[in-house]
Each structure stands twice: as structure tokens, then as C-alpha cells.
From TrEMBL:
<dbReference type="GO" id="GO:0015128">
    <property type="term" value="F:gluconate transmembrane transporter activity"/>
</dbReference>
<feature type="transmembrane region" description="Helical">
    <location>
        <begin position="176"/>
        <end position="198"/>
    </location>
</feature>
<dbReference type="GO" id="GO:0005886">
    <property type="term" value="C:plasma membrane"/>
</dbReference>
<dbReference type="Pfam" id="PF02447">
    <property type="entry name" value="GntP_permease"/>
</dbReference>
<feature type="transmembrane region" description="Helical">
    <location>
        <begin position="228"/>
        <end position="247"/>
    </location>
</feature>
<feature type="transmembrane region" description="Helical">
    <location>
        <begin position="5"/>
        <end position="23"/>
    </location>
</feature>
<feature type="transmembrane region" description="Helical">
    <location>
        <begin position="29"/>
        <end position="48"/>
    </location>
</feature>
<dbReference type="InterPro" id="IPR003474">
    <property type="entry name" value="Glcn_transporter"/>
</dbReference>
<feature type="transmembrane region" description="Helical">
    <location>
        <begin position="267"/>
        <end position="285"/>
    </location>
</feature>
<feature type="transmembrane region" description="Helical">
    <location>
        <begin position="108"/>
        <end position="127"/>
    </location>
</feature>
<feature type="transmembrane region" description="Helical">
    <location>
        <begin position="297"/>
        <end position="321"/>
    </location>
</feature>
<keyword id="KW-0812">Transmembrane</keyword>
<feature type="transmembrane region" description="Helical">
    <location>
        <begin position="428"/>
        <end position="446"/>
    </location>
</feature>
<feature type="transmembrane region" description="Helical">
    <location>
        <begin position="60"/>
        <end position="80"/>
    </location>
</feature>
<feature type="transmembrane region" description="Helical">
    <location>
        <begin position="139"/>
        <end position="156"/>
    </location>
</feature>
<feature type="transmembrane region" description="Helical">
    <location>
        <begin position="341"/>
        <end position="364"/>
    </location>
</feature>
<protein>
    <submittedName>
        <fullName>GntP family permease</fullName>
    </submittedName>
</protein>
Amino acid sequence: MTSGIGLFLIVIIAIVGTIFLISKFKMHPFIVLLLASYFIGLCTKMPVEDIISTIKSGFGGILGNIGIVIIAGTIIGTILEKTGAALTMANTILRLVGKKRAALTMSLTGYVASIPVFCDSGFVILSPINRALAEKSKVSLAVMATALSSGLYATHCLVPPTPGPIAMAGTLGANLGLVILVGLLVSIPVMIAGYFYAIKVGSRYQIDPNPDTTVEELMEKYGQLPSAFKSFAPIILPIILIAFKSIADFPSAPFGQGVIKSFFDFMGNPVTALILGIFLAMTLIPKKEKENSFKWIGNGIVNSASILAITGAGGALGAILRELPLADALSDSLLKYNIGLLLPFIIAMLLKTAMGASTVAMIITSAMVAPLMAEMGMTGEMAKVLVVLAIGAGSMTVSHANDSYFWVVSQFSDMDTSTAYKCQTGVTLVQGIIAIITIMLLGLFFI
């Protein structure tokens, strides 16, 4: 198999080719991502049988993780829109924060939601509110999607109990409580940077929310919109259940190891939580529209098909990339340089950009860096915490075509691929840079 600089050159050609084929020749991302998977596999001399099996397992693996979540989230979103519940939520939020703060509200919502909830699931769950707020506040969906996405991403990569930061803290022997506290601190400027990027860059691209039904049509049809409590329930309940599962899985085992933990592990699994959300959403359907419930759920499933296909193809590409010895290629070059906190950041950044999966980049980088902690002079409690966060910052940089989150954000927000690169990829680059700058400033005082 190809190694060293040639390996990275092949990956770069594949990534650039993917952008070019989708943006310039308007080829469908599903086809292009699969072509890129074959291209990388063949150019790196992977056995043909392994190429096919890896593509299939990568496609099925990512859909196994978030496929039902995407379908369930799309069904909930369809029902919330058809019944006017999404408008009720938008009206409620805008009465509290004002139209001018709609994007900031979604950034803050994402920041809080992604502490216990995986960013992919969080974006799917919150997408109906995001779209309704964009419609009511007359703000481009590009702005709102970038604000929500960056808010979710800020805590996803830096704050336990998301799996990546927890795994890193364990590998590097960092104090988990301190990782949480410092991670929350570092993620604040990261979230703020994402918000300002959304306002500045997202506003250049006008994406209309395009609701199927207008407010006037809904009011004429139903007489009144659903209550705020019933409207928010299909979204808030899943988030609460997933949050309790995260707490139950904490290393300190706050709920013990018995029935209570098992209950929250089951009910708080995103699949179970979103299915419960569907049933709550169905209670919003007026009696006179009950015969349409089957049709509305069918619409949600149909609408999710394209998202599933593209996300699965992105998973296939990511699986091919994870089979490459990228970490070994890095170890021959970067690991000999002692550049402090920049070292774990750069390794994680290169792995994230090449492979697409933030959590995988975190786990591999922390394993590579662990034996070097003493040599790097990172043996103190705060030093270990800052190394964990530096890896987290690198794992943010950047989200693009080989990352399933990139496709979740773009497809749920009606972004074409070119716009998604400017919004989603651009904002994750800015967030990663702001994160490592903040971490290095802390290092000047605490290391």
C-alpha cells in the first residue's frame, strides 16, 4: 500500500476532484463520493475485494448509526410543519428573543444541546425549529443552518460527555471534571466565532425555507395552531432522554449499574428517543386530518431518501480513508518535532481532514500522543487537559465531503455543495483556529 507523502497526495486529489465534479459538472454527490472511494482504494493498491467490502461496510455502518435517526427526524419535521407546530415554536422563540437574535438563539441552542447529544442527531432534531425561525425572521436558511451547526460543533468536539473527549481524557489520563470545565470555557469563543461567521458569510447565500404550507393556509384550515407545550414536546423529550443517557454513561456512574441505568440507556438511545418523538408529533395531527397521517409519514420517509443515500456514500468514503495508514505516515514526519500544543492539533487536523470522522481523529491522535506526553513536557494536570482540547480543536478542522455531518447539515438546509463548502467547511476552519489560539493562550499561563 502507498505510504508517506504519496498517500496524502492521493487523498488530496480525491477531495479536490470530489469538489470539482459536484460543483463544476453538477454530478450527484452520491455517485461522486462512491467514485472517490474507488479511486482512493485503487490508487493506494488496496485489494479489490477489500475495496468493495469496505465501501459496503462503511455505507451500512453510518446508516446503522444515524439512518433511523435521520428518517425519524425527517418525519417529525414533516408533521411539525404540516400541523403548524413549527410555526408555534418559531413564534414562541421570537417573542422571547426578537427577530434580530434568531441566529444567535440557534447558536446557543446548539451549544447546549450538543453537550449530551451527538451533533448529527442534534442538527436533525433541531432542524424543524431552525427552518421555521428562518421563515418567521426572514433570515436566509444558510445563516441559520451555519449558526446551528457551529453551535453544535463547538461543544461536540471539546466538552464531555460526547464520546471523543471522554476517550481522550481516559487515554491521556486527564482529569475529566477539569476537561469539562475548561472545555466549556474554550468552546464559548469558538461558538461566538461560528455565530459571527454565519452572519457574515451565510448572509451572502439566500436560501428560502420554502414551507409547504403558509401561516394563512394553516389558520384557515385548523382555526388555531397547536400550543407551545405540545409543539416543543416532540423535540424537547428526545433531547432530555438522550441527555440522561449521557449522564448515566458517565464514568462515575451517577445512576449506578442497575435498572435505572438500563432504563436510560434504552430510552435515551437516539433511535428510541426519536421514535417516541414521532408518536408525540402524531398527537399534534387534528382529528379531521388523521386520515393524512400515513401520507405525511410517507412524505417524511421519501424526503429522507436523498439524505440517507448521500450520508451513506460519505460513510463509504470515510471507511476507505480509515483503512489507510495515515497515522503511520504522520508519525514519520510530525512526531519528531516538539512544537508544544500545536503538535496534537496538527495531527488531529490532518487526520480529521483526511478521514472525515472527528471522533476517530480524536481517538487515534490521543493514542499517538500519549507516549510522548513526558517528552513534550505535558505531565501536569492542566497540561493534560489542554492537550485533550488541542486534539479536539484539530478534530474540528475541517468538516467537508468525507464527513457525514457535512451532508446532514447541507441536505437538511437545502444547501448545494458549493455553498456548503463555503458555509460548513469554512465555519469549521474558523472554529478550529479560534479554538487552538484560545488553548495556546491558556497554555501560556497554566503550563
